[in-house]
User: Fold this.
Amino acid sequence: MELYINPEPSSLPALTQRKLADDLEIEGRVAEILRTVKEEGDEGLRKIAAGIDGFVPESFRVGEKEVDEACEKLTESLKESIREAYGRIHEFHSRQVPAEVRWDDGAGTVCRRRWVPIRNVGLYVPGGSAPLFSTLLMLAIPAKIAGCGRIVLCTPAGRDGKVAPAVLFAAKLCGLTEIFAIGGSQAIAAMAYGTQSVPKVDKIFGPGNRYVLKAKQAVSREGTAIDMPAGPSEVMVLADGSAVPEFVAADLLSQAEHGPDSQVMLVCSDVSFAEKVSACIESQKAVNPRVDIIDKALSHSRIIVLPERKDKIAFANLYASEHLIISMEDAEGVADEITAAGSIFLGNYTPESAGDYASGTNHTLPTSGLATAWSGLGTDSFMHAVTIQGISREGLASLSGTIMEMAEAEGLDAHANAVRIRL
Assistant:
């Protein structure tokens, strides 16, 4: 990791830069995949599967029998862990349902803002080398709590043509029945446009690689809503003398192993602590089977020495990390001054992996600096608000002067007449 000691304030914005990949080739390939699925439906999906995966399944839909057989393959211990995580995530997200707002001005006008579930949602759960069944919990649980009418799941099959058993167990636990063994940008296309097999949805949720990200961005320009344009995973650790170097190193590595494009950042008080963490990283990564991925991620990651508390906080807000670990004295006080972070982890005993799996918060979070304005997923992400107003004749009479004067000032005479004609 690159080390920066007391950098000049003018240089800090440059230190927030993420690794940017040249995606022109990917964008072209994704555009072709989207076009194929849009025009050819299931047949297009079969062509893509044959070209990318080397085989074409009889059916993309995963049947109930396959789900049950997959569930039998899991150990009871893992099943119980998934059930416990399910319970904790459900408890926290069930408390997030937004309340209706109602205002009566007492003069004949009543305004309301009511939340309703999105009717059709699509969930994308990555597979590949690390099938993320935890992500399924983070998506399906709030979707169910919100009351979404139809929930479609797409997730890639492995080399054996089967979806990972843990993903299917989590899907069954969440009550999902429309499950499709489709991955990559073709899965996003299928849910955005609909095919003979895959229903069209109104909003797509879930992380993925650059192909998935580009596909989500593309379909969002064509009328399908998406959760957020999330990029590679990232973590920042703020540390002072109360932090434990071994813990900090473990937290940095837990994000670096996500992928070669991931970025990890340590902001600490002195060079001595930075050196201790670096030594711990070397010893811990040596026994990690994903060491090659970790090394690539570390090559564009940074350690920044900023002795002052206020400077650490200011840089954290400038960076706007997906995950922010505060290993400092008065961690809660520091957190109260953070205005840009996807999710915050307090103290020496709150690892980021707790939020990834079972603390109860959602791990689908804004990346690439978007935490300055975007939120992580919650139950309200699967809902949208509708405003309602009802006005009596007397209420309209009391508002008429204001409405007509403003409409006429904007040159919209028909707006004014819509009030005038009623009175």
In short: The longest helix spans residues 76-94.
